[in-house]
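User: Thanks for the earlier help. One more: (2Fe-2S)-binding protein. Can you show the sequence and predicted structure together?

Assistant: Of course, both are below.
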Amino acid sequence: MTRFTVNNQPVEYKLDPQTPLLWALRDASNLTGTKYGCGTGDCGACTVDIDGAAVRSCQVTIAAVEGTFVTTIEGLAQENNHPVQQALIAENIVQCGYCIPGVVMAAAALLRKNRNPSDEDIAGAITNLCRCGIYPRLSEAISRAARVARGEEEIVLDRAQPAAAATEDSALGNE
C-alpha cells in the first residue's frame, strides 16, 4: 500500500506501486481534472503540484511520491479563486480547455517560487503544450495573476456571463 496526501487528505492506494500517479488520481480518486495527454511527459496536461513543484503525473509512480503532498487542480483553491484561475478567466485565455488544468498547476507552482516572474521566467516554467495556441496571451495572464497574488490588482469576475461560465469550468478543472 502506498500512502501520501492528496489535496490535504491522506490517501492509501492498494494499487501496484509502479502505477503512474496520473492513473491513481483519475481512476482511484476520481480526480479527473488532471488530464491524460501524451503519456510521455511532454504535453503537461497531467501537471500536478508535488511538495511545491510542478510535476508531470504520468511520469511518476505512486511509490515515488509516498509520503509527499500532492495537489491537483481540484485542491488548488477552496473557492476555486486562485489568482491564476481568475486571471485566465478574466483574460479569456481558455479555448478548448483540455490543457488548462495543467497550465494552471504549472503557473501556480511558478508564482509560489517567483512572485514577479519575467516573460522569460514564464516561458521557462510553462512548457505545457496547447493545441489551441493560447501562448501569445498566456504570459500576460500569468503576469496579471502575479499582480493579483502580490495584492497589486483585484479581479472581479462576472459569473453571470454564459461564456465566462464555460471558460471558468475549464480553468477550474470541472469540464
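User: Great, one quick takeaway?

Assistant: The radius of gyration is 16 Å.
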